[in-house]
Write a structure and sequence with these properties.
The protein has ten helices and 15 strands. By secondary structure, it is an alpha+beta fold. The strands form four sheets. It has a six-stranded mixed sheet. Strands 2-1-5-4-3 form a five-stranded antiparallel sheet, with helices on both faces. It is rod-shaped and about 170 Å long. The protein folds into three domains: 159 residues, 2-Layer Sandwich (Beta-Lactamase), CATH 3.30.450; 95 residues, Signal transduction histidine kinase, dimerisation/phosphotransfer (DHp) domain (Helix Hairpins), CATH 1.10.287; 190 residues, Heat Shock Protein 90, CATH 3.30.565. A hairpin with a 3-residue loop joins strand 3 and strand 4. The longest helix is centred in the middle third of the chain and has 57 residues. 24% of the residues are buried. Its main location: membrane. It comes from Kribbella koreensis. Keywords: ATP-binding, Kinase, Membrane, Nucleotide-binding, Phosphoprotein, Transferase, Transmembrane, Transmembrane helix, Two-component regulatory system. Pfam families: HAMP, HATPase_c, HisKA.
Length: 510
């Protein structure tokens, strides 16, 4: 931008200087031409008419000022080139035809124009031509065109010096501005870039990074404030990490410690449950309730222990090549009683074998949670289970037409201990950890678990896992929302819980 400004300023200055020098030279040339024209007119009129033609060359030469201007005399009524008189080896052809036409038409004015003065010997230089018409007294038919050619070599040299000075000054200014810009960058932008790099390192987990504080200006105060902010963030993050570690340890320790007394209580409860027929009805009912609550308590402890393994990074896969349809069948067999109680119809869309190398125990636990939730919240409506595969991925989708969930709840369905309706009467499970564990199991496989829901239109969960452990998911063979969905899916109602992995294409475009 500075270079453009300097070019514009230089162009304006050069134009003004050029106009001033040329205008000054033009005024002085006109004065000189008027004086010499009067002198030449007097000399021609004073000459003997009979010997005028012989004296014209001497008269023209006497009007010349070598080095200042040249004179060209052309008879108006003669086409003979030999009748043309000139000084200084000037070619009469260098006079512009437009100037000659103007001089021929009006004999009362001086006409001028800028042109190139051509000399014999192929020499040329810029010049100013001033022309007028000269009439010999006593002979109205005898007319001459007189042209004074003023070389502008000196003016051109002056303009060249001015132009070189402007270019040199402009280049020096550009260099100076570059040095100033470099200094500003060093003094202002460099600390800002350093702050950016420190912020990136802090974001990467290097909480000990700090900015260097130099001086007492605004940038130094910014560095002090930045370092104070980084220290506070480091303290808060460490506190949260310590709190999280204590919480995980507490959950893990409590889960392990509760298993010992629970085992004793379980043995006693099993003994009572086996002999419940010997008790009175009230005691027998109490034993049955105790057995059911112990089962739920064991399930909760098992879920807590599994969450502790995920938090500690101790979870591992036991891969085997299985057909996902077989896992779906086993899960449905385990839920036969609940299906009969709810009166749900299960529709299966599993036309072809859907094989993948997965941990069958973890995949079964995922599907057990998805199908169990679908049955519990279906309110007696049909449930549809679909499987599909492509070269890289295998997928299972569970669709129910129950109560569903609101769009603002869509991003919480996989949160720990969260339930869509805490007041709902439950018949199975209900620890609030099932979907959280399912999500961790899916991520452990390098897969993803997507959720879609709409109030009154049910819910749709899609599990996608790679068919081989060396495959990175780039798509899913099943769509991200059910084809029979009534409401158009919104950004919030489609939960992308696979955010740590590459965004899917293909089916997700729906």
């Amino acid at each position: 931008m500075s270079t453009i400004v300097l070019i514009l300023v230089g162009w304006v200055m050069m134009s003004q200087v050029t106009d001033g020098i040329l205008e000054s030279r033009r005024d002085s040339a006109k004065q000189e031409a008027v004086a010499q024209l009067a002198s030449l007119t007097s000399s021609i009129n004073a000459a003997d008419p009979g010997a005028l033609q012989n004296k014209l060359s001497l008269l023209v030469a006497g009007s010349n000022r070598p080095g200042l201007y040249e004179v060209v005399l052309i008879p108006s009524d003669s086409a003979d080139s030999n009748a043309i008189r000139s000084t200084g080896l000037v070619k009469s052809e260098s006079i512009p035809p437009e100037l000659r036409a103007s001089v021929t038409q009006d004999d009362t004015k001086l006409f001028d124009t800028y042109m190139r003065i051509d000399y014999r010997g192929n020499r040329s230089e810029p010049g100013l031509a001033i022309g007028s018409q000269l009439r010999v007294q006593g002979n109205s038919a005898q007319r001459y065109e007189v042209y004074f050619l003023f070389p502008l070599t000196a003016q051109k040299e002056t303009l060249d010096v001015v132009q070189r000075a402007l270019v040199t000054a402009g280049l020096l200014l550009v260099v100076l501005l570059g040095a100033v810009a470099w200094l500003v960058t060093r003094q202002v932008v460099t600390p800002v870039r350093m702050a950016r790099r420190i912020a990136e390192r802090l974001a990467a987990g290097r909480l000990e990074e700090r900015m260097q504080v130099r001086g007492t200006d605004d940038l130094a105060r910014l560095a002090v404030s930045f370092n104070k902010m980084a220290s506070n963030l480091q303290q808060q993050i460490r506190r949260l990490e310590e709190l999280s570690r204590l919480q995980r340890r507490f959950v893990s320790d409590v889960s392990h410690e509760l298993r010992t007394p629970l085992t004793t209580v379980r043995m006693a409860a099993d003994l009572l449950h086996e002999t419940r027929d010997d008790f009175d009805p009230i005691t027998r009912r109490s034993v049955e309730l105790l057995q059911g609550e112990l089962n739920r308590f064991e399930g909760l402890l098992a879920d807590l222990l599994e969450i502790s393994r995920f938090d500690a990074g101790a979870a591992a896969l036991d891969l085997e090549d299985v057909d996902l349809r077989d896992i779906v069948s086993r899960v449905l067999e385990n839920h036969e009683t609940l299906l009969e109680r709810k009166g749900c119809e299960v529709q299966l869309d599993m036309p072809e074998p859907c094989r993948a190398q997965v941990d069958s125990r973890r995949i079964e636990r995922i599907l057990r949670n998805l199908i169990g939730n679908a049955i519990e919240h279906s309110e007696g409506r049909p449930i549809r289970i679909s499987t599909a595969y492509d070269d890289d991925a295998a997928a299972v989708a569970v669709r129910d037409h129950g109560v569903g969930f609101r769009a603002e709840e869509a991003d919480m369905v996989f949160s720990r201990f969260w339930r869509a309706d805490p007041a709902r009467a439950r018949t199975t499970g209900g620890t609030g950890l099932g979907l959280s564990i399912a999500l961790e199991d899916a991520r452990l496989h390098g897969g993803r678990l997507d959720a879609w829901g709409s109030p009154g239109d049910g819910a749709y969960f899609r599990l996608t896992v790679p068919r081989r452990p060396d495959v990175t998911l780039t798509g899913s063979p099943l769509p991200a929302r059910p084809a029979d969905a009534v409401r158009v899916v919104t950004e919030m109602s489609l939960v992308d819980v696979g955010a740590p992995y590459q965004k899917l294409t293909g089916g997700d475009e729906a």
